[in-house]
Design goal:
The structure holds 2 protein chains of 2 kinds. The model of chain A has no long low-confidence stretch (mean pLDDT about 90). Chain A is an all-alpha fold. Chain A contains 11 helices and no strands. Chain A has one domain. The longest helix of chain A has about 30 residues. Helices cover about 75% and strands about 0% of the residues of chain A. By secondary structure, chain B is mainly alpha-helical. Chain B has one domain. Chain B has 13 helices and no strands. In chain B, helix 9 runs antiparallel to helix 10 and helix 9 packs parallel to helix 13. The chains are: A mainly alpha, B mainly alpha. Chains A and B meet through helix 2 and helix 8 of A and helix 2, helix 3 and helix 10 of B.
């Protein structure tokens, strides 16, 4: 475990040098927030109205949190990196290294995104406060619970994207799979909470990755309850195990038929 | 003059044709890219189904009009990124001195650069645009207007990218400005203009001309207005002229980096 912590720390330290690059991402994040603020203001003609259990402020905070999780993840470039490792044959260099490629990728990505995540949290909270003038009511303990849930969501997203990137063992370019995955997360998990969808779809969404990677942490932030936290926490643990197993099996099967030309 | 333009167009189309043939070498990847881009865009229909279950109209648009808006946005994006892919990485080409190989060609430098590659997935965007038009209601009238507007929109998107990327001739690190400008155009284009008010709305029809590339075309297809139609054409011509002027002004400041690259 110590070697993985070392990988995490190394990536974290090296990314401290590129901290200003994050600011460019803030512009895109801010634009999205302006769009959603306008959209929800239009949909909630009366700001005190409650739709599907959410007030307008809760809906805007919900989007702010889910977008923090999604924007700070930088999933597309991570998926490209895994895919490129497979396509270029770089992955061959990792086979004989004394570490597990999946855990290496996970820790390396977490390390590279930690500073970005912290900065997005600060910026997102600032944007929310400027737009809405108040924060949701949360105790110190519940804030810690939301943070734990967010970190777990980050880990699951990273593992699922690793899994998609490893599709390159089967089909050369795994990017199209990532587009569809990202759009499903965006449409079904980032913009609306599960309660906004028809009743017959809700159980499917509850058991899907959307529940653990975006809905869970955001729901806890806008409407915290310990019952919800325990349920989301257990679901996240189960998903971490499932996602890791999927990556592990795909990787093992993939490297068996790996054929690298040249060097 | 006419022969020069004709020759330039022929060279540009040949360049696009060969770039497409290169992309089609791996048929599975090519088809997957196109189909998944259609699915990728289609996933947003869910968002609008949910929103229209809450209200009968969003920003003054009916559900069918939102589909047309999406068709217009993806068609415009598709035209720009399929035919002029390199306009969206022009900053990198200028910054890294990769213009050298284009400078020695006896044809227009800007056109030679931007048509030198195609983005396969953008074909999916164009296809999705036509699917949306069919759902909205295709007639010879809507089809002609739609094709004209996606070409104009694509040219405006490309021109904006060229203008912002050309800043690299004067300043360093302007790739972020170009990227942000391109993102602004794409993000705002898929939401009805009626939800925006005040300063944001004013920006969408001026500095971030999404209004010209997407909103006005949707209004014109829904209800023809000759004045709005002429505005779109005029703005397109202005943006193209500006793009050429700024690029060639900046090109005078270009210096090679002695980078040795092979263009395959």
């Amino acid at each position: 475990m110590r070697k993985y912590l070392f990988i995490y720390k190394s990536e974290l330290m090296s990314n401290l040098q590129y901290v200003f690059n994050v600011f460019a991402g803030f512009i895109g994040y801010f634009i999205l927030m302006v769009i959603f603020l306008n959209l929800w203001k239009y949909v909630y003609s009366n700001p005190d109205e409650i739709i599907n259990g959410y007030s307008m402020n809760q809906m805007i905070w919900y989007v702010i949190v889910t977008e923090i999780l999604w924007s700070s993840l930088s999933g597309r470039s991570f998926c490209n990196k895994i895919s490129e490792d497979v396509r270029s044959g770089n992955i061959a260099y990792n086979i004989n290294k004394p570490y597990n490629y999946i855990l290496y990728s996970l820790m390396s990505h977490l390390g590279s995104r930690t500073i970005c995540f912290i900065m997005y949290v600060i910026f997102g909270m600032l944007v929310g406060f400027i737009f809405l003038g108040s924060f949701p009511t949360l105790s110190i303990l519940s804030i810690i619970a939301v943070l734990i849930s967010s970190i777990f969501a980050f880990i699951i997203s990273t593992l699922l994207i690793t899994f998609i990137g490893l599709f390159s063992f089967v089909i050369e370019d795994s990017a199209p799979f990532y587009w569809v995955y990202s759009k499903l997360i965006l449409v079904l998990g980032t913009i609306f909470p599960i309660e906004y969808f028809p009743k017959f779809i809700r159980p499917i969404l509850t058991f899907s990755p959307i529940y653990v990677v975006s809905y869970g942490p955001a729901k806890l932030f806008v409407d915290f309850s310990w019952n919800n936290f325990i349920f989301i926490f257990i679901a996240q643990i189960i998903y971490i195990i499932i996602a890791y197993m999927l990556c592990f099996v795909t990787y093992k099967k993939g490297v068996k038929k790996l054929n690298v030309n040249g060097g | 003059m006419l022969t020069v333009v004709k020759n330039q167009c022929r060279i540009s189309f040949l360049s696009i044709k060969y770039a497409l043939m290169r992309e089609m070498l791996n048929k599975t990847t090519f088809i997957t890219n196109v189909i998944f881009m259609v699915l990728n865009n289609a996933s947003f229909i869910i968002q609008w189904i949910v929103l229209y279950s809450l209200r009968n109209d969003i920003g003054g648009y009916t559900f069918r009009q939102v589909l047309l808006l999406w068709g217009m946005a993806s068609g415009t994006y598709g035209v720009a990124h399929f035919f002029f892919k390199k306009a969206f990485s022009l900053s990198d080409i200028i910054n890294n001195g990769k213009l050298d190989s284009f400078l020695v060609q006896p044809k227009n430098v800007l056109l030679s650069v931007i048509v030198s590659d195609v983005e396969t997935s953008a074909l999916g965007d164009m296809l999705y645009g036509f699917i949306m038009l069919i759902i909205y209601g295709i007639t010879p009238y809507t089809l002609i207007l739609y094709c004209l507007f996606i070409i104009c929109g694509g040219l405006i998107l490309t021109s904006i990218s060229v203008i912002l990327s050309s800043l690299s001739f004067w300043f360093s690190k302007t790739d972020m400005i170009a990227e942000t400008g391109n993102n602004l155009m794409v993000n705002f284009a898929t939401y009805p203009d009626g939800i925006f008010k005040g300063l944001v709305k004013a920006l969408l029809f001026t500095f971030i001309p999404v209004g010209i590339t997407t909103f006005i075309p949707v209004h014109v297809i829904t209800e023809f207005n000759i004045n709005l139609f002429i505005i779109v054409i005029l703005v397109t011509v202005i943006f193209i002229t500006l793009a050429f002027l700024i690029f060639f002004r900046g090109l005078k400041r270009y210096s090679s980096s002695n980078l040795m690259v092979a263009r395959i």
